[in-house]
Amino acid sequence: MRTVTSASLDAWLDSALPFLTRREAAHAAMLASALNYARPARADLLAPEVAGRSPAVVPPGTRGVLVEDAGVVVGAALLTHGFLLLSEMPTEAARRMGRDFTPSEPPQAVQGPREVVEAFGSAAAVGWTEGQVTQVFARRTPFLTQDPTGRRREAREEEREVLVGWMLDFARGNLRAGVTRDAAARMLDGHLRQGEVHVWVVEDEPRAMAVTTAATATGVSVTGMYTPPEWRRSRVMVGFVRALHNHLLASGWAFTYFLTTQGSAVSRAVDALGGYEEVTRTVEARLEPPRG
Question: What's the pTM?
Fold first, then answer.
C-alpha cells in the first residue's frame, strides 16, 4: 500500500474519479469541490451539464492524494482552502495517508468518516477536537405523488428583491458565519446567473425558494430551502422539493442530494420530505499541534 501525490488536480481527478463515483453521493463534498476546479479526461463519467462547464482557477495550495493497493485506488484526499477532505477508505489506508501526507501548510481541519479521521489523526501524530457532524441524504428515483396546489419554476429577475431577503433569512439561520444583506445579494445573484434558483408558485406568486448547486459527476445538491413564515403551516416545501427533484431527474441528473449538519433545520426538513436515504455521515476535526 502506498500514497501517491498527483502532479495536478486534473491528473488526481482522472485517477480518483472511478473510485469516488462508485459511492458518488457519499463522496459528494469532495467531488463537487474538485469538479469546480478540474475536468477529468473521462467525460463519459460526467453529466453533460458538468462536462460542459468551464472550471474555476485552482486555489493556491490545493492538491490531491491517493492511496493505492497493488495499483488499485482504495482511498482519496483533497486539500483545498485549508480543509482536508477524506474519502471512505479502509483504516489501514487512512493510517498510511496520515503517515505519508506532509503538506507545506498543515490543514486547519480534516473532514471524513469518523473511523477514517481517527485513523488518519493517530498515524499523523496530531490531536483533534471534534466539530460538527455532516449528513448526506440522496435519492435517485422520482416521487410518484405531486402537490397539485402549486408548481415549480425558475426564479425571475423581477423577484430578486424578495428573494434577497429570503436568502438572507436562510443564511442567518443555517450558516455559521454572519451574513449581511449585501453578501446575501451576491450569493443570490451568482445562482440567478446560473439558473440555479427555483421557486414554488401558487397562481404565479412565489411561496418558497430552493437553490441547486454543488454538482458531483452526475448528481446535484438542493440547498437554500426557504419558506416565509406566513406559508410554513401549509407545508409547501414538501411538494416543492419533490417537484424540483423530479424536474432535475428529467433534466438529466442521476440523483439529488442534501448536505446538512446533523440536527439542523435542513436535516429536519429532509426527514419531513421522506424518501431520501442517508448515505454517509462525516465528522469535522479541528487539528491541534503535532505531538512531541
Answer: 0.91
